[in-house]
């Protein structure tokens, strides 16, 4: 943490208080000391403390009682207990009442320092979690108010994405490129950035680039004057003018022809537009957010997308993970869409049967969140009971055919002496072999494969091997 930690040390032994206090001051902490609970409570009222170090045995009030009072009055203060030798039952009780850490008498000053550092790190993590939760709450509220939907998910991947959205929202002129597979919610992320920014009171305008023909490009993007061409019966504002002071969202930017890309780049560089049929230009203040389900950098390398436009759009890139990479969010998404469609359709469905949820958790969702939403809507229509059952879930057969092909390749790799040049099949085969050798112990299997437990877990989820 950048600020200096403010620590209170409470012990009825003056020598210990002085010793701990001087040591912590030498480590650049702001230290307060007390010998009695009443004195400690006075300090707590007056000072903005981060940590309190309490001896369990104090005069007039025990350390446990003081801990409870602190947590009632100032719950944000983290408490470290000093316990007597062999006093573990009391320590366990203290942890249940909200203590963060402890060290035992007799102690070394290094033990005190380690407990402080552990608690400091705990405070940092809590602060980060609270910030993420606050960002997610604010974002969900704004999206619900403005477009009637929410961003759902508490996974690390989702939290990281929301953090990036919050950061770039504070830079309202920066171009953003959102990358992700079809159905991941790129337009929802764009909406979120807009409503978190200072442009939120102005227009959010969405354009599907694949639907704009060459003949209409300039008229649609920049507008035209009356009589500029046959059919131009009146003046028309282009999309840049419509979105002035707001956000222009360019969906499927990779489908924009090269000639259109050059004209778009000029406007992004100059921040000016000229209507078709006019010699005058007008300044526009628009944040452009582009999105694509294709790798724009690779397309640029293949001369299928302008490299200069790619660099102009990709000042800040947000990659939305496919649903198969954050499956822990599936139950929240299922419950969200279940509630939504139950209300819309007027059914009395109260939940999802465990077997149905298991089936959804094992599915890879090639269509991502959009596919999940459609599956739940259809299931609600089909269901006449109180719970969604496996029979109500219509999942893509292609997914299971792909799984079968992978398993066949894996079996071929196991039975053949020749090399099978299929990376995915070989990964699955090696993972299965490592799990068999370790009696399904993931930690030991990861060790055999020379990867971390987390990396093995991600691969198993990817391949549906859980």
Structure commentary:
The protein has 466 residues and is α/β, with parallel strands linked by helices. Helix content is 51%, strand content 14%. The chain has helices spanning 14-26, 37-46, 63-73, 88-96, 109-147, 156-169, 186-196, 214-222, 239-242, 258-270, 296-301, 307-313, 330-345, 354-362, 368-382, 397-415, 423-437, 442-449, 453-462, and strands at 6-10, 30-34, 51-55, 78-83, 101-104, 176-179, 204-208, 223-224, 236-237, 247-251, 272-274, 281-283, 287-292, 316-319, 351-352, 387-388. Strands 2-1-3-4-5 form a five-stranded parallel beta sheet, with helices on both faces. The longest helix is centred in the N-terminal third of the chain and has 39 residues, at 109-147. It is globular. It starts with 5 loop residues before the first strand and ends with a helix. 31% of the residues are buried.
CATH topology of the largest domain: Rossmann fold
- How is the biggest beta sheet arranged? 5 strands, parallel
**Unreliable segments of 5+ consecutive residues:** none
Shape designation: globular
**Mean pLDDT across all residues, rounded?**
87
Query: Percent of residues in beta strands?
Result: 5-15%
Based on DSSP secondary structure assignment, what is the total number of beta strands?
A: 16
In order across it, which strands form the biggest sheet? 2-1-3-4-5
Taking the alpha carbons of the first and last residues, their distance comes to: 38 Å
Structural class designation: alpha/beta
> Oligomeric state of the chains?
single chain
């Amino acid at each position: 943490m950048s600020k200096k930690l403010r620590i209170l040390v409470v012990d009825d032994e003056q020598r210990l208080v002085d010793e701990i206090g001087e040591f912590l001051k030498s480590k650049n902490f702001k230290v307060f000391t007390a010998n009695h609970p009443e004195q400690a409570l006075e300090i707590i009222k007056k000072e903005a403390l981060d940590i309190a170090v309490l001896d369990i045995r104090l005069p007039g009030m025990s350390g446990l009682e003081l801990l409870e009072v602190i947590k009632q009055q100032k719950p944000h203060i983290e408490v470290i207990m000093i316990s007597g030798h062999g006093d573990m039952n009391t320590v366990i009780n203290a942890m249940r009442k909200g203590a963060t850490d402890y060290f035992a008498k007799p102690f070394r000053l290094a033990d005190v320092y380690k407990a402080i550092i552990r608690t400091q790190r705990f405070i940092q993590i809590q602060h980060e979690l609270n910030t993420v939760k606050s960002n997610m709450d604010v974002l969900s509220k704004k999206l619900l108010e403005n477009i009637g939907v929410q961003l759902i998910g508490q996974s690390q991947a989702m939290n990281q994405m929301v953090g990036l959205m919050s950061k770039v929202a504070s830079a309202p002129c920066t171009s953003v490129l959102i990358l992700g597979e079809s159905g991941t919610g790129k337009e929802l992320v764009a909406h979120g950035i807009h409503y978190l920014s200072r442009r939120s009171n102005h227009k959010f305008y969405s354009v599907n680039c694949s639907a704009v023909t060459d003949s209409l490009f300039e008229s649609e993007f920049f507008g035209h004057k009356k009589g500029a061409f046959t059919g131009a019966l009146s003046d028309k504002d282009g999309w840049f003018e419509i979105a002035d002071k707001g956000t222009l969202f360019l969906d499927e930017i990779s489908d924009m022809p090269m000639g259109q890309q050059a004209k778009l780049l000029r406007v992004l560089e100059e921040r000016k537009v000229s209507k078709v049929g006019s010699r005058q230009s007008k300044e526009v203040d628009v944040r452009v957010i582009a999105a694509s389900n294709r790798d724009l950098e690779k397309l640029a390398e293949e001369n299928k997308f302008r490299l200069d436009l790619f660099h102009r759009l990709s000042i800040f890139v947000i990659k939305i993970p496919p649903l198969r990479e954050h499956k822990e969010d599936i139950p929240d998404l299922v419950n969200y869409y279940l509630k939504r469609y139950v209300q819309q359709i007027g059914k009395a469905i109260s939940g999802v049967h465990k077997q149905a949820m298991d089936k959804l958790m094992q599915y890879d969702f090639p269509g991502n969140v959009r596919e999940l939403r459609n599956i739940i809507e259809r299931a609600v229509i089909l269901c006449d009971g109180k719970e969604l059952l496996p029979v109500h879930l219509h999942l893509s057969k292609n997914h299971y055919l792909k799984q079968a092909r992978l398993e066949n390749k894996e079996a071929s790799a196991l039975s053949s002496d020749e090399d099978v040049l299929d990376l995915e099949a070989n990964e699955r085969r090696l993972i299965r072999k490592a799990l068999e050798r370790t009696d399904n112990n993931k930690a030991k299997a990861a060790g055999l494969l020379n990867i971390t437990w987390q990396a093995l877990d991600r691969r198993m989820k990817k391949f549906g091997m859980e």
